[in-house]
Design brief:
The protein has 3 domains: 1-112 and 273-363, Isopropylmalate Dehydrogenase (3-Layer(aba) Sandwich); 129-138 and 173-268, Rossmann fold, CATH 3.40.50; 145-171, no CATH class. A hairpin with a 4-residue loop joins β11 and β12 (285-289). The chain starts with a strand and ends with a helix. The strands form 2 sheets. It has a 10-stranded mixed β-sheet with strand order 2-1-3-12-11-4-5-10-8-9, sandwiched between helices. Strands 6-7 form a two-stranded antiparallel sheet. With 363 residues, it is of the alpha/beta class. The protein is 39% helix and 17% strand.
Length: 363
């Protein structure tokens, strides 16, 4: 019996391509694992009305962790039959499988390292090495929304000035949710020798929910006197990340702001082809590249697989396979530094699998 049981979730589009690339590297590193295929994505929504079937949720509950490729999402205001005529009359409503996965499995940490590897022609600077902790289950992603103001809300103070046809999305931050993501950021900083944690918010305007987040962050920070703490408004944070990204270490934020700054930070170190991500809970974790499914490139083996390979590195670290994780990161760094193999986004002509094979050869 293999030491690890890993759910293998290729998904849609280039998710299939980059996962094939990741497998080349994982096979070369010699991980003792059973990879169990899981159904997720557009094809299952089209056939079954569910992009995250119950069988896949059950699989995730019975695996050590998962590696995930990418899925195609349906725009909210586009009818299903406009995207696929075979769906006409079926009444399928699309729900994001990755958001549902995070909530159903309580994967409350979204961990996104953003590190510049010297030799990458896409780096904004070569000395960037920061980590974003994004709360992953609540805030504006909680999914409590109304296409018009319901009568129960119209009776609240101040709501009489809001038009009945206004759309409403509720921003929900709980004390527990705020505390556990902030504490996770501080624990990571302490365990990895990081010196500073910055809380990102908009408490000067969004006073209830972001005010709670900042209050909790300040309280938790007092328990970690060995780690410097500061905070910044989300708008100022975006400006300072562009101006002075090397000054930051660990950033922690509610869901929406974390989503924004993690993509911004990823672009500073080469773009989404280098953006790896971990969705982590107490009992389960799902690792993925942060890019989408890019349907126009599906099956062309053109896109950069390093985000997925680095996500696999994160998975190994989470499993406790530190030496193997470090070996993969070193191999990736060496390939980037040498510059002989580059995918199209880096100005080269290497295929997805060429890049994976180059990394594997460094192992």
């Amino acid at each position: 019996m293999a030491q690890y049981r890993i759910a293998w979730l290729p998904g849609d589009g280039v998710g299939q391509d980059v996962m094939q690339a990741a497998r080349i590297v994982l096979d070369r590193i010699g991980l003792d694992a059973e990879y169990v295929h899981g159904d997720i994505g557009w094809e299952f929504w089209r056939r079954e009305g569910d992009a995250l079937p119950a069988r896949t949720i059950e699989l995730l509950k019975n695996c050590d962790c998962a590696l995930f490729g990418a899925v195609t999402s349906k725009p909210k205001n586009v009818a299903a039959e406009e995207l696929d005529p075979s769906l006409a009359g079926k009444g399928f409503s699309y729900r994001s499988p990755i958001v549902r996965m995070r909530q159903l499995l309580d994967l409350y940490i979204c961990l996104r390292p953003c590190k510049a590897y010297p030799g990458n022609p896409l780096n904004y600077r070569d000395d960037i090495d920061l980590v974003v902790f994004r709360e992953n289950t609540e805030d504006l992603y909680a999914g409590v929304e109304f296409n018009e103001v319901p009568p129960t809300l119209r009776s609240l103070p101040g709501m009489e000035k809001v038009a009945a046809d206004a759309a409403v999305s509720l921003k929900i931050n709980t004390r527990r949710g705020c505390e556990r993501i902030v504490r996770a950021a501080f624990e990571f900083a302490r365990q990895h020798g990081r010196k500073r944690v910055t809380a990102v918010h908009k408490a000067n305007v969004v006073r209830a929910t972001d005010g709670l987040f900042l209050e909790v962050a300040q309280k938790v920070a007092r328990e970690y006197p060995d780690i410097a703490f500061d905070d910044a408004n989300i708008d100022a944070m975006c400006m300072w990340l562009v101006k002075n990204p090397q000054a930051y270490d660990v950033l922690v934020a509610p869901n929406l702001y974390g989503d924004i700054i993690s993509d911004l930070a990823a672009q500073l170190v080469g773009g989404l082809g280098f953006g790896c991500s971990g969705n982590i809970g107490e009992k389960c974790a799902v690792f993925e590249p942060s890019h989408g499914s890019a349907p126009k490139y599906a099956g062309q083996f053109k896109v950069n697989p390093l985000a997925t390979i680095l996500a696999a590195r994160m998975m190994l670290e989470w499993l406790g396979e530190q030496d193997k994780a470090m070996a993969i990161e070193s191999a990736v760094a060496n390939v980037i530094r040498e510059g002989a193999v580059r995918t199209y986004d880096m100005g080269g002509k290497a295929s997805t699998l060429d890049m994976a094979k180059a990394v594997a050869e460094k192992l």
